[in-house]
Every structure is written in structure tokens, then in C-alpha cells.
Write a structure and sequence with these properties.
188 residues; single chain; eleven-stranded parallel beta sheet; 20 strands; 1 helix; mainly beta; globular
């Protein structure tokens, strides 16, 4: 029995040490695509382009970071606080700057929380763009500067806006399907 307990305890210790969380991949420079086993972090001054990536954790955009994500699957949520720009999806109408190519929507298996972002450094893009995405959780937009676009999405956990500098959220004529409560106002 003692031998069994010793082997069992050793196995538990080994399992605990080997199952630690994967470190986040810093995204800056060349586009990231393919499988990313941990999360993604975008730091101050970083320009992150996720194209057809599969991120098996969350994406975090820190103050001063820029994120553009196209055709990607994010198994965790997306959190940005103090980012310069956050552009999540686009479409055929995004073939001009700053994307310069067709930018399909994304599948985000968690929620999206964007705060204190903008006014943006990628003219003529809005500070925040959430377009043509499927989002399993809610979308929370608070204390952001600059224009915000939410268009043609399926948002399953509600859409919440609070204290954004731009009083209206632009839906570009194609409203999103929002399941749950909506506290944002839409205008052009």
C-alpha cells in the first residue's frame, strides 16, 4: 500500500507540474496564424494581426496596443483596456486602409470587454470595430474614445455600452443580432 501511495503521489506531483497554463504569445510584427496553444497578449506599441488563427485561450490588449483579427477562432474571451485600436473582423468593404484585404469575421467563444480604448491611430478606421463575428458571450464597451462600429454580428450574451465618448454606436446599416439585453444606441 505504501508503494502504491508513493507512486500515486509522485504521479499527482508530476501531473500538477506538467499541467501548468501555457504562457501567452506576444503578438507584434508578422501576422500570427495557425494554432496558438496559449493566449495572446498585445503590449504597448505592439501591432498585432491575427489571421485565421486558432487561439486556445484569451486575447489581451494592453494600453497602447493595436489588434486586428480576421477569420480567427478565440476559445477564451477578448479583453482590451487602454488599447489604441481594436478591430475584430471586417469584410469585403475593408479592402482599403488599414486592413487592405478582405477581413472575415471571427468566432469568439467567450465575451468581449473593451474599455478606455481610442481615439485610434489607424485612420480612417474607427477606434473599435466589431463586424461579422459570432460571439458566445456578451460585449461590454465602456469609457472608450473615438468612433465605434458594431455591425452584422451574432452576439449571444447582450451588448452593453457605458460612458463612451461617441454617444452612438454605428451599425453601418447592418444591425447585429443580439441575444440578451442591449444598452447601446445605434446611429449613423
Amino acid at each position: 500500500m505504501k508503494k502504491f501511495l508513493g507512486v500515486f503521489v509522485s504521479a499527482l506531483v508530476l501531473a500538477a507540474l506538467s499541467s501548468g497554463a501555457m504562457a501567452a504569445t506576444e503578438c507584434n510584427g508578422p501576422p500570427l496564424s495557425g494554432t496558438i496553444p496559449g493566449g495572446v497578449v498585445v503590449n504597448n506599441g505592439d501591432f498585432c494581426l491575427l489571421i485565421e488563427a486558432t487561439v486556445y485561450d484569451s486575447v489581451q490588449v494592453n494600453p497602447g496596443g493595436v489588434l486586428i483579427t480576421c477569420g480567427s477562432t478565440i476559445y477564451g474571451g477578448l479583453v482590451a483596456n487602454g488599447a489604441a485600436n481594436v478591430l475584430i473582423g471586417g469584410g469585403a468593404d475593408e479592402v482599403g486602409p488599414p486592413v487592405n484585404f478582405d477581413c472575415p469575421g471571427n468566432n469568439i467563444r467567450g465575451g468581449v470587454q473593451i474599455s478606455n480604448t481610442g481615439p485610434g491611430v489607424l485612420a480612417p478606421a474607427p477606434s473599435i470595430s466589431i463586424e461579422r463575428d459570432i460571439i458566445a458571450g456578451g460585449v461590454h464597451l465602456s469609457n472608450n474614445a473615438g468612433p465605434v462600429v458594431v455591425s452584422a454580428d451574432v452576439i449571444n450574451g447582450g451588448l452593453f455600452c457605458k460612458n463612451n465618448a461617441s454617444p452612438d454606436i454605428d451599425d453601418e446599416g447592418t444591425p447585429s443580432v443580439v441575444i440578451g439585453r442591449t444598452t447601446c444606441e445605434f446611429g449613423e
